[in-house]
Amino acid sequence: MTTVKWCAGVVALFGLDSTLAASEYSYIYTQPLEGVYSQGWHSMHLRENNLRRHEIYVRGEGKLGDFFGVLWLDCVEARYSNWLSVGGHLTQDDVPIEAIKKIRMAHC
Questions:
Q1: pLDDT averaged over consecutive 10-residue blocks of the chain (108 residues)?
Q2: 34: helix, coil or strand?
């Protein structure tokens, strides 16, 4: 539960919540699911720590459930990227690799 509380603190700190207009987020990826269902993935740049590291707010919503998290994105060495916090119904393991690749393309 610490992760969820921390993420809620980050959400409050940056003023992010589900009422943000869609224009605040960058569309990243639509994950196709069975039939007509899908999961949408969006991101928002929070802060640049230096030229190679960024904090990215990631939001997923759709048939699978809600996801929100802050990704520490390393633009030089992808293997050093990691989740600072996650919350919602889904975990970081539920974020598809296609969404991660598009986040890198959009923010690096």
A1: 47 50 77 95 93 93 96 95 96 97 94
A2: coil
Q: In this predicted structure, what is the pLDDT of residue 49?
A: 87
Tell me which long-range contacts 10-15 makes (C-beta under 8 A, separation of at least 24).
10/57, 10/70, 10/84, 10/85, 11/68, 11/87, 14/46, 14/57
Name residue 65's amino acid. G
Instruction: Check residue 20 and report its DSSP letter.
Output: S
Residue indicated by tokens 């690799």: 97
Q: Could you tell me the two tokens for 98?
A: 């296609």
Structure tokens at 36: 């007509």
Q: Which two tokens stand for residue 50?
A: 């230096």
